[in-house]
Amino acid sequence: MLAVGIDIGGTSMKIGFVNEKGEILHRFRLGVNHEDGQVKMVKELGELVNQEIEEQGYKASDFVGIGVGCPGCINSETGRCDFSGNLNWHDLDVVGLLNSITGLDTRIANDASAAMLGEAMFGAGKEYKNLVLLTLGTGVGGGVYINGRLYEGNEGKGGELGHMIIRMHGRQCTCGSHGCFEAYASASALIADTKKAMKKHRDSKLWDYVHGNIDDVNGATAFEVAKLGDPVAEEVVKNYSYYLSIGVLNYCNIFRPDAVILGGGISGQREYLTRPIEERLAARHYGFPMSPKVRVFVSELGNDAGILGAASLAFEKVKK
Ligand SMILES: [Zn+2]
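Above are the sequence and the zinc ion SMILES. Below is the predicted complex in structure-token form.
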């Protein structure tokens, strides 16, 4: 059997026909035209899925269903996108629309929850039953996998790990709160910290790395320049790793997962990202002595994490 995996982003929707081994047999995409109304966007998506099924020589009965990973506030019980800032969607019945157009069972979840299930089914978490996933991007997305199932919480809105407060009266967060993990551990936070350090230290190699253009700073800049031994970049990375590991330590104490998986662009730093976290976890005994070791991995699914995560939603039967 196959599943249709739909990874919805702010600029395009990536779609794949995925088999149970996690192989993407066919892929296509649809640009997001913000001029279109929200209902029209989803109708076009459903019609495109129908068209591709036919053109590729498949039948609807070859598919277990459609899985959709969507950014924003998703109610996975009603199948509606309550709100998505990136897409300008409000109270949109995504599941109802796709189901009526394609006739396929459809399931939707927040994109980070979908990525969590994808890693558990096809990626770095395959051998484990209890996992936590953090995607380090513009914000920090979170996913939780407990006893071999995706944990969704009330209305499917659980797993907002980015908004755990790790510093009282701390930095302003996009959610309106102060001191959230996301305000310290997202790629956006790292980029802001890197730029701040550059403005303070005009002699730092960080400036050479971006050829004097501070707008070229990205989530990799501080890591790459720290590898060259620049003390300013090293300090930025040390500070970032400190907050990231505080958050991970808290999740380990709450969930005691078998492993924590890190995704998003920064996860390309691999052991430079995971090693300081593992060292802090070990030094703190995960909060308690004699605790089991929690492994820290980076995502294995890379650019396909979105499609595979979405498809995994369709493969995992929902327990009512
Ligand atoms: Zn927040």
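The radius of gyration is 20 Å.
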